[in-house]
């Protein structure tokens, strides 16, 4: 059994605010990296107990280079560094049996810990009219590749978001959000035990969890923060700027076109300053 594990940072056990996740300015960032590595090791242990024979871990936060490889479980290989065409899901293909998303967070506008969608420029993102955050976007990418997302870890808000999209998905709730930058956290040992147990159960149950599908062509529609971002993004060939809104849409032929175009859109929007 081949298992793909994508690891973001905002939903990691014990992490509540930007001091843990910002590599440049975060006073707790080095602790955050240890917490992140601890959560992913717990998932790897659960996967091995369920019979995984090959595990690829994709570091998926910021510069995609946070996990402490010197502390990583020796049974997994680590995809680290940037850029990658398919970012948080790069390396996933149809040979994998299941995907697990560790340390994920709620989408922009939901009162989860450190909630956002990809970067600060996106207010809402839709695939074929369905609002998606990072979880939903990556789950559609996996689904169209034929791989079910069987488990997510993070706060109570991302657990709800994931369960609404994928019936039967396993969740390990490691903290309960009390605001965007505070949470009631499980002790790390307890959180990791929960992750290990749910990872094992989710892989035992993987055959019963359906890949999240979407009809092709895929309509990607992104609502940006302001018109300047939308105008800049609409220089990408094939995009449509919906004048009078801050939305830009694009018809993607498949999940690969979808992912690369989304990245191009947010990277371009990120070059526009508000004032
Ligand atoms: Zn992140």
Overview of the molecule:
The chain is an alpha/beta fold. It folds into two domains: 2-124 and 133-208, Rossmann fold (3-Layer(aba) Sandwich), CATH 3.40.50.10780; 218-269, Dipeptide transport protein (Gyrase A, domain 2, 2-Layer Sandwich). The protein is 29% helix and 25% strand. Helix 1 (29-49) packs parallel to helix 4 (188-204). The longest helix is centred in the N-terminal third of the chain and has 21 residues, at 29-49. The radius of gyration is 18 Å and the shape is globular. The N and C termini lie far apart (51 Å). The model has no long low-confidence stretch (mean pLDDT 98). The site of zinc ion has 4 residues, from loops.
Throw out a few tags for this protein.
275 residues; alpha/beta; 5-stranded antiparallel sheet; binds zinc ion; 2 domains; 7-stranded mixed sheet; Gyrase A, domain 2; Rossmann fold; 29% helix
Q: Order of helices and strands, N to C? A: EHEEEEEHEHEEHEHEEH
- Pick out the low-confidence regions: none
> What is the spatial order of strands in the main beta sheet?
3-2-1-4-7-8-9
CATH architecture of the largest domain: 3-Layer(aba) Sandwich
The computed structural class is: alpha/beta
- In CATH's first tier, which class of the largest domain applies? Alpha Beta
Shape: globular
Sheet with the most strands?
A: 7 strands, mixed
Quaternary structure? single chain
Radius of gyration, rounded? 18 Å
User: CATH superfamily name of the largest domain?
Assistant: Dipeptide transport protein
CATH topology description of the largest domain: Rossmann fold
Bound molecules: zinc ion
User: How many structural units, i.e. domains?
Assistant: 2
Fraction of residues in H or I helices: 25-40%
Percent in strands: 25-35%
According to DSSP, the number of beta strands is 12
User: What's the total helix number?
Assistant: 6
End-to-end Cα distance, whole Å, is 51 Å
Mean pLDDT: 98
